[in-house]
Each structure stands twice: as structure tokens, then as C-alpha cells.
Amino acid sequence: MKIVSAEFVKSAYSREHWVNDGRPEIAFLGRSNVGKSSLINSLLLRKGLARTSNTPGRTQSINYFLINESYYFVDLPGYGYARVSKSMRSDWGKMAEQYLSESGELRLCVQLVDARHAPTSLDKQLHEWLVFQDKPYIIAATKADKLSSNQLRKSLSQFDDELPGAKVIAYSSETGKGRDALWAEILGAVERKS
Questions:
Q1: Are 44 and 127 in contact (CB under 8 A)?
Q2: Which domain holds residue 98?
Q3: Looking at residue 130, which CATH number applies to its domain?
Q4: Is residue 1 part of a domain?
Q5: pLDDT, tens digit, 9 for 90 and up, residues 15-56
Q6: Inter-residue contact 96 to 78 (CB < 8 Å)
Q7: Which pTM value belongs to this model?
Q8: What is the pLDDT of residue 52?
Q9: Tally of CA atoms within 13 A in the half-sphere of 127 that contains its CB
Q10: Buried residues in 83-97 as b, exposed as e (16+ CB within 10 A)
Q11: Pairwise CA distance, residues 188 & 107, whole Å
């Protein structure tokens, strides 16, 4: 995939600030500290476009990135980080759910799950919600480079059991493993009419 341009457009803290120009949107969602910013940067071959942090739970807004002036990557707030207040966690969840329910241009949800661990209860809840709401989605099993081939095979098998029906792509932001496969899914979704 050739990236001609990739730029941060805006952060939205409420519905009235969403981008609404008719371009397709690809949403990235997952637990705090699962590597969303790193995955976005590695997909785009850009360092620091999506800001990474050593402090999980930093993303508190919906962040829009315009790719090739054709479609958006939409980085949703991470979920499940324990060191923020319950009300703050609740606000983030409501913001993400509202976006996922109401965005008219959403073409694909990329749910990130850490390949090194079994899916958490929150990972499973999100997966069930996406299935129930009939949202197009794919799972990116991040940090795949941290596992041996045998460990990764076992982890992906566990994902098949615990996230039934999901297409899972093993992904590494460090090595680029899974990059082409994930781009194929993204471009297929962008080209599909909603």
C-alpha cells in the first residue's frame, strides 16, 4: 500500500465534533496499552503520527487521521485501564459506543487484542457487541513478535475459541508482520459501499 499522505485532522470529544464529510472511516479500538498508536504508525510507515505513550489510557478523544485524502483512520479511546476514575472510563465507553453505533461512514472496525494474553472479559464483550450490532470487523493480534511461532499458534487457536467467528491477523508493529494482510482488509472495506 502506497501512503502518499497521512495527517492528523482533529480530536473529537463529543458528537458535534465528529468529521462528517462522507469519506469512509476505519475505526481502531482495543484495550488501553494494546498498541493502537503503534499499529497505526506502523501501517502508515510514520513515526509519531499517532502519539504513543508509556501511560495507558492517555487517548481520551476520538482522533481522526486522513489517509491519502481518501479515507480516515479513527483512533477510539482505549478501554479497561484501571487507573482512571469509573466515571471517566464510563464516559470513554459511551463516546466509543456512540461513534460505533451512529457513524454513517464506518466501514471496518479493527479490534486490537494482545497476542500474548487470552482475550479479557472486555475484549470478549466488545467482540460480542460488534457481532450483535452486525458491524464489519477484524481482529489484529498485536505484539505477535513477542511470541515464538509455537506460542503464537497456540494463542491464535485460543482466540478462535474465545472470539468465535472472528478473522484474526497476527500483527507486529516492530517487524511489520501482518501489515499487508491488514491493509488488504482495510482497502477492501474502503472500496465497499456501505
A1: no
A2: 6-191
A3: 3.40.50.300
A4: no
A5: 999 999 999 999 999 887 888 999 999 999 998 888 765 544
A6: no
A7: 0.90
A8: 61
A9: 21
A10: ebeeeebeebeebbe
A11: 9
